[in-house]
Amino acid sequence: MRAAVLHEIGQDKLEVFEDVEATGFGPGKVRIRVRATGLCHSDLSAMSGVLPQPAPFVPGHEGAGEIVEVGEGVSHLKAGDRVVVCWLPACGACPACKRGQTELCLAGFMNAGTPNFRRPGGDVFGFAGTGTFAEEVVVDAGCAVPIPDDVPFDIAALIGCGVTTGLGAALNTADVEAGSSVAVIGCGGVGISAIQGARLKGAAEIVAVDPVASRRESALRFGATKAVSPDELADAKQNVTGGEGFDYVFEVVGKSATARTAYDNTRRGGTLVVVGAGAMDDFLQLNMFELFFDEKRILPSMYGGGDVLRSYERTIALWRAGRVDLAGLITHRVPLSEINEALDQMRTGTALRTCIEI
After folding, report:
1. Residue 332 has pLDDT above 90, yes or no
2. Contact 42, 277 (CB under 8 A)
């Protein structure tokens, strides 16, 4: 079958092979025919080494498709079922799951260290234990979440990561208060989803911050009340909040520099929500006096900060009701054979989300 493979960490191009085999099928596993997958910035971060991932590997973790085969012991799924791929399934038994913090379950991360593809030259890993830039993938049954028949595969793929992460940051982690002021730094697919979440919660002012003009224009369509470049953020802070700072600032880039900017633009007693996935050697510096004196809440948001399955259901309900726009997030479509074009669209910021049709 076909799959896009990164040979070594640090390479910026993927190579599409036709001799890749999805491996590991057996008890408790399912085989999925991938129909659509989104390109998330985390895929680029894994390719560059910002996020740890053994190589060679098949990127992709934001996918949807159909069940081809179920292994022994899998009773809740059958061949033909439409599913979204969940890269962070909850085991239900660990301390985090028992506390109700299923987004902190580590069971899914354990899958990342086990190869689930093979080529004639040897084993190949799947990013985050999945690897949806492939025609088929074998994953634990818990990674395959059934979706209703009326949810298109491209929409379902977005729900698998970016939309759930962004919406959840506003709805779950921040629990944005109606009438509040919000700034979102980084307005790709996840940032736009955070903007939609803040709008749903009734934020009065939502300032989108991004260096790419087309993304700023898109942010206004999705609910931002103002869109500015990073250089214009100081003026926006003065005009919108009288210089006090925003009630909520979402950092959706994953860099210490933008996190520091987010902190500085959060009002005293306000909330900084860290959504971007950054590098382990990129440190955010804060002094102990400002932490004490400003009383700003710093809230990291992992995968939307809530129960993933409930978040999927909520997103589908909001999409059906027309309360969130998911189709509008897909600005580009490419076949798997043109995956490197999708990478360029992400790197240059010309795409909110590129759908790879497989």
Report:
1. yes
2. yes
Rounded to the nearest 5 percent, the helix, strand and coil shares of the chain are 35, 25, 40
> Against a cut of 0.85, is the pTM above it?
yes
- Cα separation, 100 vs 94, whole angstroms: 10
- DSSP state, 349? T
End-to-end CA distance of the chain: 11
pLDDT digits (tens, 9 = 90+) for 113-153: 889 999 998 999 999 999 999 999 999 999 999 999 999 99
Q: What is the pLDDT of residue 113?
A: 80
Strand partners, 70: 30
Quick one: DSSP state of residue 172? I
Spatial CA neighbour of 171 closest among 38, 312, 23, 337: 312
Mean pLDDT of 38-53: 95
For the segment 42-56, the average pLDDT, to the nearest whole number, is 95
The token duo for 337 is: 């054979």
Tokens of 30: 């399912």
Question: Token pair for residue 248?
Answer: 């909520």
Q: Do residues 248 and 174 touch, judged by C-beta distance below 8 A?
A: yes
Cis peptide before 56 (omega within 30 of 0): yes
> Cα separation of 156 and 308, whole Å?
14
> 101-133: b or e for each residue (b if 16 or more CB lie within 10 Å)?
bbbbbebbeebbeebbbeeeeeebbbbbbbbbb
- Residue 340 tokens read as 């490197």
Residue 49 near residue 95, CB atoms below 8 Å: no
- DSSP lists the bridge partners of residue 62 as 38
